[in-house]
## 1
Amino acid sequence: MRAMAELPPPLGIGLVGAGAFGEFCLGAFAQMPEVKIAAVADLDFGRAQMLAERHHATAYPDLEALLADPAVQIVALNTPPYLHGAQGLAALRANKHLFCEKPLALTAADGEQMIAEARARGLQLTIDYVMRQNPYWAAAAALARSGVLGKLRHMDLANHANGLALSSSHWFWDERKSGGIWIEHGVHFFDAFSWVSGQVGELLGSASYRRHDGVIDRVEAMLRYGDVAAHCYHAFDQSSTTEQTTVRLSFERGYVTLHEWVPTDLELQTTVSRSEWESYLPGPHTVTKSTNDHVMARSYAPEGKSALYRASIQAGMRQLAESITAQAPLRVVGENGLSSLQTALEATRQASA
């Protein structure tokens, strides 16, 4: 009887930036056999110690100390965007693979330098673009590539986010630290639209809107992805009870709608025969027929948003681990982060012109 192949030993993760989202990521990584949490670093050393103790890891007060730990093979960078360029480059120069939260950096030059450093050292660099790991975004991309609904004609994002929970002193509102809405948040959707359409985005125009204290809390842009038209609107002016995100993809013979910024369902409306598209729907789904020969299908995630978000983060880290141990191809590479960053930089520039 053939012996089962031995699994490679888990790779050590050093997480930098132990805020609320960093804590969420640690919880996701802790459930993965491919990796183990080796270290946690944060300027709030007490918080780093608390989370490190929870995961039987070592706490460090800063990035430099963490990078000196030989048990760390992957750096998970969860710090504010303005630190990504310098800290990501430091991690790569310490011969650590990099799992970087978006954006890749605040400048294209920093992003290019990070990509070049990773390539020169034979290291893997990926960005936590959870849309590419989400089953409903993946279904939308597969439907676009299949052509069963005809050509993709238009993509629309309406993102009404919970900005009221952020204090006026939060780094998100400081463009020197966040890069602004397009760079801190918009890159997710610039990348997702590029993935679904198979084209690099070309910005046609961008605008921004300021609230009473002068802070930019709403932005919108018109783009084209090849011959696909696109519109993006981001507003950080809602509460947790009123926020909502909707993405609508218009095809020649149907419409696909995704709800929530981490989608937990997909709605499809079309006159195309059910046998042609049903296999593209993930998970459980319902199908109903309307009076005008349109069929409406809804695929949904009964496990809910948090579980789906956690699974998407895990999928990105799993792909990174497999690229290190088995030379498997990465689904999200540094160039994807750079392309979406360049679109965000141009949107920011045009809005302020």
Note: Residues 2 and 216 are 62 Å apart (CA to CA).
## 2
Amino acid sequence: MSVYTEVQAFFDRYFQREGLDLSSCERPKIVVAVSGGPDSLTLLHLLSLGGLYPTKCLVVAHLDHTLRPESAQDARFVEEIAQKWGLKYIQDRIDVWAIAKAKGESIEEAGRNARYRFLSTVAEKVGAPLVATGHNAEDQAETLVMHFLRGAGLGGLRGMLPAGPMPGSSEQTLIRPLLTVRRPMIEAYCHENDL
């Protein structure tokens, strides 16, 4: 069995389990958060080229956190992918370092909060009820360890949900279709599909 077939099977089971409608749509249905890394490229590839949704159902969203010198290159790369695959593309650029300093937050926290605000704003703008991120099994394990180290009780040790309310919004649902897929499989998928 090819890696494509294995990852596609995880993906298909996710959408069936969550009861998400895979039929065609007349307007954007999913805002896909794409950083340009293997996880988000796999997610975008499966949603668009995997044939789950027509291109008019998807919007690619990229937020440049300006934390690395090559972040502008990442934004251009994601834009090129979106154009090549015939997908609508929306991006923004923020200074996460300045936000973290002003709010007294860690870089990670400021970045995560800014990213979710951006994705929610994009979803509201295009009328999409779903926001998809490329979180994988290793991200889930990392989240559980962080919660444990912070002293979270049993309720805090559940980790990320495969689907749930978008942070800060009651209008959209955040979905994580790759949450049970391991990172080595995602990397193999990218290699096999020349991503």
Note: The CA atoms of residues 128 and 156 lie 29 Å apart.
